[in-house]
Design a protein that fits this description.
Order of helices and strands: HHEEH
Shape: elongated
Number of helices: 3
Distance between the termini: 70 Å
Structural class: mainly alpha
Number of domains: 1
Largest sheet: 2 strands, antiparallel
Low-confidence stretches: none
Helix content: 25-40%
Strand order of the largest sheet: 1-2
Number of strands: 2
Bound molecules: iron/sulfur cluster, zinc ion
Radius of gyration: 17 Å
Strand content: under 5%
């Protein structure tokens, strides 16, 4: 008898709310949502069945959730990497966001201004 890979998942018993890809709304506490989502990424990172889970996500066109360490937006598109730190951008409409968090957005802006100042 083959054991279903789902029975070996590290996310078994965790709250479902951890796995929803949070919506990015203007004025929402996005950084808090990002911190929550990173807990999900950390669980996936040590999951022994991540490759089965990733294949399942691709096969079933996963959307609106974090699965196998990837945040899929509401259209099922894997969120892209932050333009500053390379972490995934966690947002349902992540395609519109350039950075993963306010911290990265501020740092990128600071570094750009600094580069321009030094070049002047
Ligand atoms: S990779 Fe993540 S979402 Fe997939 S089974 Fe493991 S813990 Fe759950
Ligand atoms: Zn970032």
């Amino acid at each position: 008898m083959t054991i279903d890979w789902r029975h070996l998942a590290s996310c078994l018993g965790t709250p479902g709310s951890l796995w929803d890809t949070p919506p990015h709304k203007p004025g929402s506490d996005r950084d808090q949502l990002v911190l929550t989502a990173r807990k999900a990424f950390a669980i996936c990172a040590r999951c022994p069945v991540q490759s089965d889970c990733r294949a399942d996500a691709e096969e079933h066109h996963t959307a609106g959730v974090i699965q196998a360490g990837i945040a899929y937006d509401s259209a099922g598109i894997p969120s892209r990497a932050c333009g500053h730190c390379g972490h995934q951008i966690v947002a349902r409409n992540g395609a519109l966001a350039k950075y993963c968090s306010s911290a990265c957005s501020n740092l990128a802006e600071y570094q750009k201004a600094r580069t321009e100042r030094l070049a002047a």
